[in-house]
Amino acid sequence: MSEVEETIKRIQSHKGVLGIIVVNSEGIPIRTSLDNSTTVQYAGLIHQLTMKARSTVRDIDPQNDLTFLRLRSKKHEIMVAPDKEYLLIVIQNPSE
Amino acid sequence: MADDPPRTPTPSGSRKGSGKKAAPAPNKLAPPAAAAQKKSKESVTKSKSQHDAQPPQGIVPLFMATKSQEIYECICDEHVTEDNPYKLIKKADIIQDMKMRAAISDFHPVKQLVLDYPGEELLIAYDPDFKFGQNFFLCATEEAKMEHLHPGGAGAEGEEGVEAAGEEGAEEEDNAVYVYKPPEAKEWVTQGSQVEVEDEIVVDTRDKIRFRASRVRKEFGAAITFEDRDADTSAAEQGLAASCLACPSYADTNFTIKKAELDNAVQAVPEMTDGSSQTDWKHPVTASVQYEPRVISVEEAKVAQQSEEFKQFVQASLPRFELALQQNTIMDVFFDDWAVLGEEDTNFGSKSDSHLKEYQSFTDLQYSKDKTVTCVDWHPQIKGVMAVACCERLTFDERIDNANKLLMSPSLILIWSFADPIHPQLLLEGPDDICCFKFCPTNPNIVAGGCINGQLVLWDITEYSEKLSSNRGNNSKASQKKAAMFGEEMQPETPTIRYCAVSAIENSHRNIISSVDWLPDHYELNRFGIPVENRLSECCQIMTCGTDGHVMVWDIRAPKAPANTKDQQAEKSAPPRPFGVSQVFKHLDLSWKPLLKLSMAKTDSSGDYSPLKFSLTEKQGVRDHVPQPAGGKPETTGMSKVPSAKNQRPLECIATNYFLGSEDGEVIYASFKLEKDNETGKSNVPKPTWSVAPHDGPVNTLQRNPFFSDILLSVGGWTFAIWKEGVTSGAILQSACAPKLYTAGHWSTTRPAVFFLGTKDGNVEVWDLLDRTHEPLLVQNVTAAQVTQIVPWVVSKKQHLVAVSDNVGTLHILEIPWNLRHPASGEKQAVEGFFDREIQRIEYFDKKAVARANERSKEMDKKKAQQAKADEVSDDALMEEYKVEYDSYKQLEKKLLQQLGLIEEEKPEI
Hints:
The complex is a heterodimer of chains A (96) and B (910). Chain A is an alpha+beta fold and 96 residues long. Helices cover 38% and strands 30% of the residues of chain A. Chain A contains 2 helices and 5 strands. With 910 residues, chain B is α+β, with helices and mostly antiparallel strands. In chain B, the strands form 10 sheets. In chain B, strands 6-7-8-9-13 form a 5-stranded mixed sheet, covered by helices on one side. Chain B is elongated, with a radius of gyration of 75 Å. Chains A and B meet through helix 1, strand 1, helix 2, strand 4 and strand 5 of A and helix 11 and helix 12 of B.
């Protein structure tokens, strides 16, 4: 448990990280460092996008699977690590 | 025909007769033929008789006058004509007529006849040919009447009878009677129609042939059997008679025309057509969805987080995240170097692009010729309108000499518009020459100006503001047309507006007002110089500085209390507006007193500074640091009364310090907040905190950078300097002495590192701090006279203009080229960095100076200590040394004097 905490804290303390969200397989956020409304929005939208991305990758090559997803926008970058059951979302502002 | 010959003479003979008988008998030609025979005999007799004029028996000629004709209805050519000459008249009528008219009656000569007449009716016949001697004749006997009426009626008997009757008739009547004679059968003579008839007749040419066919009786009605047979030659070979001829088909050459062209039409037709007759099915579509996110309870979340999978997941994701996060911090992979690279190079362009282009120039021959322009200001709102203040170019002594003449010539501010470069749009008249003026930023219809005699003047151009903004250029044409109407050549009248308020002379400056400016609208000052909140958000206070050493703050609102009653009375009995001047500031006129009066006492010596320019920290429009005025706006907007002190909230965030530039080239840093003297309890004007004299001549420009509010540019004499507020050790940058006097300066409004300077010989220098700081980037000659003011202005996004005014009354408008108005990327940071570096340099030098001073003093101390020691030890030795030196000196002195011959050589003692 403490390792988990430590890891999450480590990610969070990286330069430019705005927030970190953990989402379960149904798309419900389990753990977050942002406020509720933002979390809910990110969880719902990113979950859907990740499912789509994963299905795309697997359609092209069924042996393949999605390991990491980076979405870069003008203001910041959203990084997603999918798993069988969970989804870890990190938002970073890279230009700082 | 036997009858023919006698026919010919008959007509001639019986013409007279037949003329009377033509009507009755067309089918009586034959009888007339017979009658004609008789007539031929008779005609001879008739002709005789005619000669004799003997009427035949029973015929009596009768003359009927017109009157009688009318009576008996037998008018010639009306009732009786040649064709129908007979008229039956009743005997009774005649008798009556005879009785009536007696001798006059036409029947009088035949009276007896009529009376004897057996019948009832008498026949009168028209005789146009006067055959019987008169125009009418009367048939006296019945037989004659019958003869005439029915000629040949009894003559159907035989020829002889007819002849006989005819003779009689002929004698009586002279008309041939046609007797019907049946046609005789004669020999038919063919005329040629027989051939056709014969043709048509069917005649047997030969005997008719007879045939008889028979058949065995049993074959009648027997069954019929058919069989096939080929219809070609092989059948003939078979011995069968060619009972039928084959007609095989063959290529008939007549019909083998090759079709070279064929008309064909193709139409693309859809094979299917859709049709519908029912309405669209509007199926319900979700218009809006309201949803709530699913959440799980905290306990569940905790449970999930403590699960083994979660741990593994997090551990596994960590390296990926670390990689990504670090990548981002190292460098920005999406940065487009190529696009940014080209930005600076696009401005290379051609040489011509990088100088100020002359756009327009304004001068008025009447009002601004040979005058100097003291101040230029752009209209804050209306594009293309600027105002220019003109002053006489005379020294003080000359002014005194020409004082009378100067009184007559008006002192004007000319308002120009781009639409008309020859005639100013508006003239503002002031009491004396105006040295400086400014449009009010919040209400551009108010202009405040400072005069050469120290008075502060206000103009109100509200009436003409529409004229300025709307019809530019149309005005002159319209008024020129009016002038043409009267046959005179009049210049279009430029409207002149007189000032509407002027300050009281006793309370104004004692010397010229050198600079005037409006205080920003987010604060106002009270009597103690403390900035308080400005509820109206309108500029209502003016700060002026004059060369008499005072800085004054004026309020354009009406003063409070005791003057009120007087004002009200005055208002009630207000005289009609003199000179059409606006009455808005009537309360200020001639009685205007400054709110605050600050004297600039010198810090180190006695006397006052004589400020020429001042520069406030607060900028109009920049009010982020000011809290919103509480309680909203007061109801009466516009020029209301000065609010009472207790209603106003003092604002702490407003800086009360400001810079001054003086006539002696000093830059002074002072505060306008009055200090309370603890001892006396009075409020005193604080002395300036800091001053320095960097310039060799009067400071003509003291201005803050529009991008950095703590950086100032001061221009005076032959140099300019850049200062930072707070850095008191010295200027950040001080230029070397220029070859010509600098007479004007201004920061660029769009580029933080660029400013313009004007020189005495009419050049405009453009300096770019980022480019080089030892010489200007661009030197351009604009005018031949001295440049007095430079004011850049952003007219539109594409057009940045700078107004340059000179000493001879001309205002030049130049266009700033692209590279001088478009800031380079990161220019602001670069300039900021530049200033920081300069400040660091100053600080470094200061430090170094301090350090060195310390060192030096240390060394000095050391030396002194050493010296002191050395002195004590060798005091005597020193004395001896001194003595030896003194002796040698004495000898030298003697020698010299002997050489000069001033001392005789001592004679040696004998």
